[in-house]
Amino acid sequence: MLKLYNTLTNKIEEFKTVEENKVKMYVCGPTVYDNAHLGHARCYITWDTLYRYLKFKGYDVTYCRNVTDVDDKILKKADEQNVTPDVITDKYYKSFINSMNGLNVLKPDIEPRATKTLGEMIAMVKKLETDGFAYAVDGDVYFRVEKYKKYGELSSQPIKDLLNGARVEANDKKESPLDFALWKKDELNGYNSPWGKGRPGWHIECSAMSKKHLGTTIDIHAGGADLAFPHHENERAQSECANGCTFSNYWLHNGFVTINKEKMSKSLNNFLTIDDVLKTYDSNAIRLFILTNHYRMPVEFNEVALNSAKAGAKRLINSIAGIETTAEYDKEIVEEFELAMDEDLNTSKALAILFGLAEKVRKDENKQISANTLSYLGSTLGFDFSLAQKELSDDELKELVEPLYEEFNISKDKTPKEMLEEIILIRKQARDNKDWAKSDEIRDKLLAHKIQLKDSKEGTTWAAL
Fold first, then answer.
1. Does 3.40.50.620 match the CATH number of domain 3-258?
2. Taking all residues of the chain, what is their mean pLDDT, rounded to a whole number?
């Protein structure tokens, strides 16, 4: 039985779905105004792992992850670059998708854009206003927090405490400092609405998109720990007041990625983009780095930890290189894996099982079954076994590339690795001279001898197939 930690109740609970065997899952997606960073990688790898595991357990999952493409930060960047907002959102949405592909994160079943859900947002705000949960002031619309008696439950902050700590701003149009914007007046960049030109508040966007694509009550709402308050708290309040029912049965939050004990974020300017990290570490290394830690705990970024994950991932993935896997598994080990993951996604325990399988493959202990099981369970955690590279001994490599010494007139005093480095240098000189025909010829000769070249910004590397 799967058990998950519910932020709303502050305890681990048995997971029960609204509809039998069906899971409706919503994860707050990116605001597309900049490149995604390692903190985003932690979030989306975590929920990608949950998505994969729910499907592994046989659930029919509908995974919705939104795209926020109307926001103050988007407008600010568009203004700075003297372009329209859609130029910014299109650029960074493509960048985000490329980053997710680079991390081997599955595409969600539904990926709605905020700007395509404006009608539903306006309808929800109007309903809240009609029912007395919201009020309009000079083109803005605010939610009456104190009318929703459960406010603060999700973040474990009673309304009285929130009121005591709230800032009272001069000339504030709000009835209470806790009230938040559902609709913002914006005559320059806004959309037509019953309250004049404006645009939605951030919180109402997710409520409307979730309702449109998943219904009024969902099974799982997930995101980073920084979203619990105020974003998720506000989403819950407005959704339950507008729809008259429970919004989400389980609220899940992943911990931060930190640098020097501080949360990685754009505002602190201490972030590394996913694309930058992928230049040095592949998707398997990054995933292992993240999944080694429990999803609710913070992860401290440092190169030592990432290098360790890189070596571990290589050992794990390469253990089954060259082995044709089939669908015959070790059922006992599959059950062990499931028991570990059922404990609120205990990925560190699940990883120990995978490394145990890798060791069995290396020791030829039930090699084929162990390799099959490793591939099956490893893929469930999102590892990409297509990146496996067969590791050869010096003698095996020498036998593989022996004919290349004469083909390229290279001294046999050089080791096979030195010889390959020299061939790569010859090819680089051809590429520098724009002699693409010679460059391609060298690549194809190596490929014929089962040596594959991979070009990147950092240079060219080789791998035995």
1. yes
2. 92
Each residue's pLDDT tens digit, 242-267: 999 999 999 999 998 887 677 766 66
Say which CATH topology domain 280-387 has.
Four Helix Bundle (Hemerythrin (Met), subunit A) (1.20.120)
Confidence band, pLDDT 50/70/90 cuts, at residue 322: confident
pTM: 0.84
Domain boundaries, the chain: 3-258, 280-387, 394-464
Domains 3-258 and 280-387 share a fold: no
Alpha-carbon span 325 to 329, nearest angstrom: 10
pLDDT, tens digit, for every residue of 119-133? 999 999 999 999 999
pLDDT of residue 170: 46
- Segment 68-90 shows an average pLDDT of 95
